[in-house]
Design a protein that fits this description.
Blueprint lengths: L8 H24 L4 H20 L9 H20 L9
Helix pairs in contact: 2-3
């Protein structure tokens, strides 16, 4: 796929974010892969809980106000939850 040379920075940031999001989805699906759909979801739930706990357990941006940090953390946690929810359970092989 060839990309036009004059891509604006915002579009480049969006492309980067999209690529990383898709990569993370595939990696997590492989890590949690299991023939048992319940075990698969359980593994993903543990990953999600760990990431959300980690995001909320410390300051990430010391130069901004506490309220702004909280908004960013909440948005990041929501993104993690949506990302995990978007990973389909593997289809059982017959």
């Amino acid at each position: 796929m060839e990309v036009e040379a004059k891509i604006d920075i915002r579009s480049l940031d969006l492309a980067h974010s999209l690529a990383l999001t898709e990569l993370i989805r595939f990696v997590l699906a492989e890590i949690a892969s299991n023939d048992d759909g319940g075990a698969f979801r359980s593994r993903l739930r543990r990953i999600e809980e760990g990431v959300v706990t980690s995001l909320g357990s410390r300051r990430h941006f010391l130069a901004i106000a506490d309220q702004e940090e909280a908004v960013i953390q909440e948005a990041a946690c929501g993104f993690v939850s949506r990302l995990i929810a978007s990973i389909p359970a593997p289809v059982a092989k017959k």
